Amino acid sequence: MEAVLTNLSITPFLVMDVMEKANALAAQGRSVIHLEVGEPDFDTPACVRAAAARAMAEGKTHYTHSLGVPELREAICEHYLTTYGVRGIDPEQILVTAGSSPALLIAMACLAGTGDEIVLTDPYYACYPNFIRVLGASPRFVPTGGGDRFQLDPQKVARARNASTKALVINSPANPTGVCLDEDHLRGLCSLGLPIISDEIYHGLVYTGEQHTILEYTDDAVVINGFSKAYAMTGWRLGWAVFPKGLVRTAQKIQQNLMICAPSLAQWAGIAALTEADPEVKRMKRVFAQRRLVMLREMAAHGLNVEVEPDGAFYVLVNMAHVTGDSYRLAMDILDNTGVGVTPGIDFGPGSERYIRFSYANSEANIREGVSRVAGYVGSL
Ligand SMILES: Cc1ncc(COP(=O)(O)O)c(C=O)c1O
Q1: Nearest to residue 293, comparing CAs of 371, 214, 182?
Q2: Does the Cβ of 351 fall within 6 Å of ligand 1?
Q3: What is the pLDDT of residues 137-170, one digit of tens each?
Q4: Cα(365)–Cα(108) distance, integer angstroms
Q5: Do both 29 and 75 map to the same domain?
Q6: Ligand 1 centroid to 258 CA: how many Å?
Q7: Contact at 8 Å (CB) between 55 and 265?
Q8: For the segment 57-104, what is each residue's pLDDT rounded down to a tens digit?
Q9: Whole-model pTM above 0.85?
Q10: Which of 232, 251, 277 is the last residue of a domain?
Q11: How many Å apart are CA 122 and CA 127, to the nearest integer?
């Protein structure tokens, strides 16, 4: 039997290759430090776990409304008001999903199909082009670079756009750069009149400057967010999208057919996350902020080249152009020689082929030790 999907040239998620190899080395007794992973190392806040346990005991184990439990959708609307001052979002515009990943897929499916194009930055979050290809559409890349702080230039998007272009995906703070799009760029991108899919999954984890949702500037956007990162809930699979009123029924039909609804227990836990977990979420953010400083300090002390300091998320992109044109080989060599897992830049597109991504979702001690090992190895090349 042959998988037809291979015809769509779905690329592997290389960070998983690194992680699986790192785990295999650890199983052989090697000292391994994971600086490749893109997930918080914290447990989910206790109040969230308790809410899920209560929901379980109360038998809230059935299918929910396909858009999501109404109380959760109301809490999400309230979140936009209290966090960004954005009023007037209707709970009927919220689609609760099994993580932000299906929300991205559904948003793209609402906007593009066979033969269409969606504009992405390069570097980009590794999975975006694959979502687009599954839909029979094509990604059109617009390069961003360290010289312009990885800001996406609206003029470049305007030039890249053609009759087949149906949407633009932005991600702020971004994976893998950690950089936030500034207000001028956000406004400029909104002025293009192109539907925007704004992946805001790292909101709540911004350490320098302000975070802005795209909904502060336009209604013609689908916002993607979720609980995986800021709430340390990766395994719960809970996310959401805010759709413009004209699109939500289409999104709902896709969800009804493909997923039915998001997991019920996770949804009840999500209400507690939004309404009770704020002190714990702020504490985790403070820890990440401190780790960011530790990682940047250690990298500077060891001569690793961080072109652009990240504003948020938990990643630092390091330029390794002086030692490699092949980031996958380098990441595997670093792992073999130092026991430190790092992510090859090529996972995020040709624009970051000469970079390695480090994650600071690990303890300060491991960050110090990991950076020191990698710098020692790279220095020896
Ligand atoms: C930029 C970005 N978007 C979306 C996701 C998907 O997250 P989830 O499906 O867990 O919400 C990730 C995960 O790493 C990410 O980095």
Answers
A1: 371
A2: no
A3: 999 999 999 999 999 999 999 999 999 999 999 9
A4: 41
A5: no
A6: 19
A7: yes
A8: 999 999 999 999 999 999 999 999 999 999 999 999 999 999 999 999
A9: yes
A10: 277
A11: 12
Which residue's CA is minimally distant from atom 6 of ligand 1?
101
Q: 96: CA distance to ligand 1 center in Å?
A: 15
- Joined together, the tokens standing for residue 323 give 């030692």
235 and 147 belong to one structural domain: yes
**CB neighbour list of residue 53: distance below 8 Å, 6 or more residues apart:** none
Q: How far is the CA of 246 from the centre of ligand 1 (A)?
A: 25
Coarse DSSP helix, strand, coil percentages of the chain, rounded to the nearest 5 percent: 45, 15, 40
H/E stretch holding 119 reads strand 117-122
Number of folded domains that form the chain: 2
Place of tokens 């969230």: 48
The domain in which residue 362 lies consists of 4-43+279-379
Ligand 1 close to Cβ of residue 64 (< 6 A) = no
Residue 175 near ligand 1, beta carbon < 6 Å: yes
| Backbone φ and ψ of 306, nearest 5° | -90, 105
189 in the same domain as 72:
yes
Is the Cβ atom of 101 under 6 angstroms away from ligand 1?
Answer: yes
Which amino acid would we find at residue 68? G
Helix boundaries (H) for the chain: 14-27, 46-57, 70-84, 100-111, 128-134, 154-160, 183-190, 248-258, 264-276, 278-301, 327-338, 364-379
Residues, the chain, total?
381
